[in-house]
């Protein structure tokens, strides 16, 4: 399985890897060395925390490197009158009886709480390619689905300021 990512996604991951390897890793290594000198390691909370942060940094580096290695780089297909990647879309959720503006993004930059919805999520996948006025079924599972109506599409672009997701 691979993730469909843009060239900007890859660039942002490479930048984060460089920061983590060249700046953060040496800082965390120095902190680990400093806290090791506090004495008995079995009761040294500062040492355990420094070790935890070092492992977390190394894990994030491995994760990002794997994402780059297995990614499928995609071109953004802009459709003038239909929902495409990075478009802002005003939808009306019939089940919630509410409007919401979302932006369709790659999985790496999703943050549903802030309105950034992955193109591979049930909602993002359902509305991709649809036009203003379309009523679209969003199938979450075999037992859960709802309809949304597309009210407005504002064409967007791959915004380099949009951060990648952390963990």
Can you walk through the features of this model?
By secondary structure, this protein is an alpha/beta fold. Helices cover 37% and strands 22% of the residues. The protein has three helices and seven strands. The strands form two sheets. It has a five-stranded mixed sheet with strand order 5-4-3-7-6. α1 (7-36) packs antiparallel against α2. The two termini are 20 Å apart. The model has no long low-confidence stretch (mean pLDDT 92).
Number of strands: 7
Instruction: Give the number of helices.
Output: 3
Cα-atom radius of gyration: 21 Å
Strand content: 15-25%
Helicity, in percent?
25-40%
The strand line-up of the biggest sheet is: 5-4-3-7-6
Mean pLDDT: 92
Structural class, from helix and strand content? alpha/beta
Q: H/E series, N to C?
A: EHHEEEEHEE
Q: In whole angstroms, how far apart are the ends?
A: 20 Å
Largest beta sheet, briefly?
Answer: 5 strands, mixed
Low-pLDDT residue spans: none
Spatial shape: elongated
Write the layout of secondary structure elements.
Layout: E1 4-5, H1 7-36, H2 45-70, E2 72-73, E3 88-93, E4 98-105, E5 116-118, H3 122-127, E6 135-139, E7 145-154
Parallel strand pairs: 1-2, 4-5
Antiparallel strand pairs: 3-4, 3-7, 6-7
């Amino acid at each position: 399985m691979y993730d469909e990512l843009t060239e900007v996604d890859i660039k942002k991951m490479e930048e984060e890897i460089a920061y983590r390897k060249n700046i953060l890793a040496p800082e965390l290594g120095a902190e680990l060395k400093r806290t090791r000198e506090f004495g008995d390691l079995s009761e040294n909370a500062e040492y355990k925390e420094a070790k935890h942060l070092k492992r977390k940094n190394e894990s994030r580096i491995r994760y990002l490197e794997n994402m780059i290695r297995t990614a499928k780089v995609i071109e953004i297909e802009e459709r003038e009158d239909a929902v495409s990647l990075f478009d802002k879309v005003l939808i009306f959720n019939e089940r919630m009886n509410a409007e919401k503006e979302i932006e369709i993004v790659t999985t790496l930059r999703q943050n549903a709480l802030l309105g950034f919805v992955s193109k591979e999520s049930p909602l993002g996948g359902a509305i991709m390619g649809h036009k203003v006025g379309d009523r679209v079924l969003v199938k979450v599972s075999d037992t859960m689905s709802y309809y949304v109506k597309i009210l407005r599409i504002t064409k967007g672009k791959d915004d380099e300021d949009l951060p990648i997701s952390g963990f």
